[in-house]
């Protein structure tokens, strides 16, 4: 089976600096984009694709790495908005990998 095209374009379009007046917007976008990645992964798992097990392992290791990086950045003084941007970049990379 072919890949399902993504319904929304998952690409961080606004950054913490560009959207400082509306920090809730980037957080809401992160939630929507992450939901789309979850859908793409669930489709992969449901179809039983050959690389589904690798995707599950990658998903866990990436989440752990992202959490460690976010913690380190927060401890170094990063703003919460910068952390949201960090996660949006991870989510965008996951979506691109799952679609291609």
Overall geometry: flat
Mean pLDDT: 84
Number of strands: 0
Major pleated sheet: none
User: What structural class do you assign from the helix and strand content?
Assistant: mainly alpha
Work out the helix count: 3
What fraction of the residues are assigned to beta strands by DSSP? under 5%
Determine Rg (CA atoms, Å). 15 Å
Order of helices and strands: HHH
The parts where pLDDT drops under 50 for at least 5 residues are none
Architecture overview:
The chain has 100 residues and is mainly alpha-helical. It has a domain at 46-100. Helices cover 69% and strands 0% of the residues. It has 3 helices and no strands. The protein has helices at residues 23-47, 52-75, 80-99. The model has no long low-confidence stretch (mean pLDDT 84).
Quickly list its features:
100 residues, mainly alpha, 69% helix, 0% strand
Helices and strands in order:
Elements: H1 23-47, H2 52-75, H3 80-99
Helix pairs in contact: 1-3, 2-3
Concise account of the structure shown:
With 100 residues, the chain is mostly helical.
